[in-house]
Amino acid sequence: MRFSSSALAAASALCAAIGVFWLSLSFFQSEEEAKARGRLSLYRSTVLAELERFSHLTYVLARDTYVIETGLGAPTSVLDKRLAAFAVQSGLDAIYLMQADGTTISASNADEPETFVGQDYSFRPYYQAAITGVQGRFYGIGATTGLPGYFIADAVRTPDGDLSGVIAIKLDLTDLEEAWRAAGEQVFLANSDGVVLLSSNPDWRYRTLGDLSEAQRARIAANRQFPGQPLDPLNWHPRGDARAMIDGAKRIHLAASVPQHDWKLHYFADDSAAVTRSWLVTGMVMILAGAGFMVSQVRRTQRIGAALRRSEAEEAQLRLANDRLAVEIEDRRTAERRLKRTQDELERASRLAALGQLAASVTHELGQPIAAMRNHLAAAEIGGKPAQKVIPQIAGIVDRMEGITRQLKFFARSDHEVFREVDLRDVVNAALSLLTPNIEATEVTLDPRQPPGPIMVRGHQLRLEQVMTNVLRNAVDALEECDERVLHVRMGTTENAGWVEVRDTGHGLGAASLSDLQEPFVTTRESGRGMGLGLAISANIVKEHHGRISARNAEGRGAVFRVEIPMADGEEDKDQT
């Protein structure tokens, strides 16, 4: 057991050391990468500054009167001296003027053995770009001197705007290489073909970052860009984690694009210092951890002695606590038995209360069709209508009473009702027909408006008629003692629901909210005129249909009740719960 604990401790220490090493290595490597990004940004800025330092000179020279006159045929000696002075003062390798056919007629090195005068450079891309009106830029080995340089050219035009020649300058960028080498950096600049143009390591110059295609080699040969160079691949293998192997050494590798030519500047940095610093940090952490472990062991021994002394006292207390716990367990069991009996009694009381509410609901729901039947019989008796006209209306009301007693769902589940497509217009018309005697007796002016097409919703027609009957009956009752008795009924559809709005000109909702009015046995009518179950039942039915019922005070006076039922989806529900 002691051997296993020691092995576990040694393994834990080893894992901790490895973890500290990799964490510190990651941190120090990120620092080295940040430094490398800073150096890369500096060198990129230097390259851009060197490339752009004389970019305006060819534009200015192309508009110089001496250059224009020489291009038109004036003697070249004056321009040769002028260009030579410019080259010396600006530190350029050469400045030279070519005719429209690419033949050089004047140059700053006209007096030197390797003069550009008389040379045809029409094959150079910078010349070909300049004669099209675009500033030409090109890097390559000089066809005359054999020395590399950066060429910039602009077209020279006559006062009439015709092309008379091309003025070009050549820059020596090898000072950049010397600066990189003096700083001990590993940097190279590659063009769009992947050929290294400038490098801190001379062995990397004119190497390629990958194999060149036949088309690339043919184009380079036609431009005489790198004459005499084999353009062999560079010994490097880039990776995707800002690392690369170059000449067999693993280095941090970062690259930045250089505008104008789609060149890339590649920077390599050695991160061996990060590894060394990581080992130092790991060693320091392990030494501190060992010292801390020794101190903790001493304190642990002291705590164990104190714990042994406390355990004897705690054991006595534990025995006493166990005795008290046994008594508490028995008391809890007794309380649970009493709670069970109380819950059973409460459940029986709840069932009795629900039964009483259901009885009141049935009484309320049957009250409306009974009142309608009484009104029909009274109207037939007063008006002397024949029995064959009254009997069908009474039979319809009786059918409705039977449906109410069978379908009433207040405080009960509706486990077997089938929801089908129902035209909401038929629902409203059936409810209005049932309340016609009440509307006529109250002398209410009915203002119904329905769309010409059907409003197909998903639901149970009899239950929806029950909702609309309750809402319309409440509106009619609200108009009984009003001077203006108008009942507006509007219907329509939204994106996914059909709706009915009932607006009356009665006394409104007052301070009551729809939530208050939906409570069973809550009503705003005087005693003896209803039990306040209508909206509670209606709200329950609308909820079963996944719809919504809302109410608000109308502008001016009266109340507006709105019922929304989801549109039918074309399929019938086999079982609606």
Provide a compact summary of the structure:
The protein is built from 14 helices and 18 strands. It has helices at residues 2-52, 57-61, 65-71, 77-90, 125-130, 174-182, 214-223, 272-383, 387-407, 424-434, 436-442, 461-478, 514-517, 534-544; strands at 94-99, 104-107, 136-141, 148-157, 163-171, 186-190, 196-199, 236-238, 243-246, 249-258, 263-269, 420-423, 445-449, 456-459, 486-493, 497-504, 548-553, 559-566.
Provide the descriptors you would attach to this structure in a database record.
alpha+beta, 14 helices, Heat Shock Protein 90, six-stranded antiparallel β-sheet, 577 residues, five-stranded antiparallel β-sheet, single chain
